[in-house]
Amino acid sequence: MPYSTSETVDAVVIGTGAGGAPLLARLAAAGLKVVALEAGKHWNPATDFATDEKAQEKLFWTDERLSAGADPIPFGSNNSGIGVGGSTLHYTAYTPRAQPDDLRIRTDFGVGEDWPIPFDQLEPYYDEVEQFLGVSGPSPYLWGPTRKQKYALGPLPINGAGQLMQRGCEQLGIKTSPAANAALSADYYQAGVGHRKACTNRGFCQAGCTTGAKASMDVTYIPLALHHGAEIRPESFVTQLITDGSGKIREVIYVRNGQEERQRCRFVFLCAGTVETARLLLLNGLANSSGQVGRNVMAHTALQIWGEFDEDIRPYKGVPGALISEDTHRPARADFAGGYLLQSIGVMPVTYLSQMARARGLWGQELKRAALAYNHVAGINILGDCLPAVGNYLELADEKDSRQMPKPRVYFSNGENEKRMTAHADKIMRAIWDAAGAKNVWAFPRNAHIIGTCRMGESADAAVVNADGQSFDVPNLYISDNSTFPSALSVNPALTIMALALRTADRFLEQRK
Amino acid sequence: MPEKYPNGTVRALLLTNQVTEVTRQALTERLETSYRKPDFFSETAFGLLKAICRRLVPQDENQPHIDIAGGIDERLVQNKSDGWRYDTMPADGEAYKLGLAGVEETASLLFEASFQSLSEEQQDEVLQQIQQEDAPGETWKKLPANRFFEELLAEATTNYYSHPLAQEAIGYVGMADVPGWQRIGLNQLEDREPKEIMINDE
What we know:
The complex is a heterodimer of chains A (513) and B (202). Chain A has eleven helices and 20 strands. Chain A is 24% helix and 21% strand. Chain A has one domain (8-46, 72-512): FAD/NAD(P)-binding domain (3-Layer(bba) Sandwich), CATH 3.50.50. In chain A, the strands form five sheets. In chain A, strands 1, 2, 7, 8, 9, 10 and 20 form a seven-stranded mixed beta sheet that branches. The longest helix of chain B is centred in the middle third of the chain and has 20 residues, at 92-111. The chains are: A alpha/beta (513), B mainly alpha (202).
C-alpha cells in the first residue's frame, strides 16, 4: 500500500537499521501513515547473499569517509551498513544488555556523561526486544541485575574459539558463559513475522545471514512494519530536510533512480547512524543551536588478541562470538573509569588475513605461513566504554563525494582512560590465551562501533535531543540511533539502540494522544 | 601447524549442492577470471605493481596465478572505495600513482636501478624501508610511506585470499555451507572439511 509523494504522511523514517526498523513497526502498528527511506537495496538473503566475503561487500556503506586523529577509525566493513536492515545485515547479533551502572558513569566516576534515562525505563524494552527477536542466551544470566524474563531461547552451541576461552578463563578463575545472541538456537515464530528456522552454524553473520536465523531487521521488525502497513522505499538517499516558517520540517528530499523526489510529512525520525545522521543535520544546518551536532564521537575500545593453537579450530564455524565474560565490567583496583566485556571470536578468512596484514605488517613467506595457520586460530576481544573528548568529532570536509556532497571527516584519538583500559585488557587476554595453550599471540588494536554526534541530554545548551529523542530545536524531528548515546556503554550497542527506538516511539505516541 | 592442504577441495565442492547457486556464481567467476589488461594504470606502472605484489604475496609457480594487481586496477577504474581512507592520504588512485613512483624513486636512490631489475633481496629491501618509513625519496615527504604500504598490503592480501584457489590452499571450505555445520567444536571435522597434511605425513 504505497503512499504517494503528494500526500502528507504522518512520519518519514530515514534509515532502516536497529534505530529505524523497530520504531517504524511501532508507529505503523499505532495506525500512523509511515514511509521509511533507505539508501540501500531490499535484498532477498536466500538468493542474493553469497557465502563469500568479497561478494558481500555490498552490505557495507562505502561512500568514502575521512578518518583523522591519532587512532583513525576504519569504516566500511565495521561501522555502518547499507540496505534494508542497515548494519544489522552484518552485525554479529551479539546482544548483551547494558548494566545499570553503564548509564551513570559520571555519577560513579566523575567523568563522561550520565544517561537521562534510568535502567528501569530501558529494562521492559530489553525484555520486549529480546522476546521479539528470539535472543538465545543462558538463564539465569551471570552478570547484572536479575532478569525479569528468561531469554527467549536457550544458548547457541559453543565453537572452538569459545571452548578455548572457556579453558583459559577456568584456569584463571574468570567466569564465562555462553553469550546472548540474536540468532535462533531453535525454530521460532512471531506474530506478524512468521516462522524462522534455527541457526545452522554457518558462521557468516558478519557477511549476511542467508537463512533468516540471525535477527537482522529485514527478517524481524521490517516484516512487522510491513504487516502493519508501513511503506519501505529502498534506494532512496536523503539529501535535504525542508523546514517551514515555524521551524518544523515539512518535506524530505531524496534521490531515487537518479531523480529527486519529495515526501511531505508531519514528523521526521532520523535513524541514519552516527555518521550519516550528524552529516545530514550539518549539511542542512539543522538542530544545532547547542553546537553539539558532530561532537562527542566515541568508539568502543575493542582490542583483539589472536593466537594459534595445536587444536583444529576451523574458525568459520558457529556464531563468531559464542562465549562471554563480564567479570571485567568493573574490575577491582582498575586505574580507569568504566569497564569492558570479553568475548571469544571466530573469524572469516579474508577478514582475519587482511587485518593481520595491517596490524602485523606481515608479507612475503611470513604472510603465507601465518595464513596457513588460519584453521588453528582463535581470538578474544573486548568491548569497553569510551569517554567523550573535545578532540573527537565529525565535521564536513571540503572534499566532495560522488553525489557532490561533502565527505564526513571523523577525528578520533584514544584518551588516557581508553589506553589504560586497553592495557588492562591486553594483559588479561594474553594470560587467558597463555593458559589455553596459544602460540604466536598477536594483538590487533582497534576501536569499534562509532557512537555519539547527536547527544541526548536534559539541557538544550548541551545536547541535541532530549531523553525522548526529540530535537530541542526542531519540534517535529526525532533521532533514533547510536548518535544519541550520551556514553558509549561497555557492551555492543545494537540491543540498546532497538530498545531505545521502541521507547522513543512510545513516548512520541503518548504525547500525540 | 599444517604444512599444506590437499589440492582441488574447493573446486570439487563448487560442483556439489553443498554450495548455494549465488555462492557458486561468485566463486566460479573469480576462478575463471583471466589476466586483466590495465585500464587505470599505465602499462609501466601496472608492471611495477605486479612485481611488488609478487613480493608481498609470493605465489607457487606450480599453481595457477592469481591476478592481485588486476583487482586493484579494476577497483580504481570503477572508482570504488572500501568506505574510508586515512585523512593523511590522498584519494586512492592518486595514492597508488604517487606511491608506485615512490617505489621507483627509492629503488633508484638505493640501488641505482629500476625496481624490476633488482634481485628479490634488493626488492624486499626497498619494500621494507618503505614499510618502516626509512625509505629515501622526495615522494615520501608528500605521501606517508607506512600508510601507503599498509593500504597496498591490505588490498593485495584481500584480493589474494578472496580467490578460491588461495582459500583451498589454507584449508578453508566455509563456502560449502548448505548443510550447515554440526561438528563445530575443537578437533571436530565434517567429511567435507579437508584434513591437513602435516610435515611428518610426507
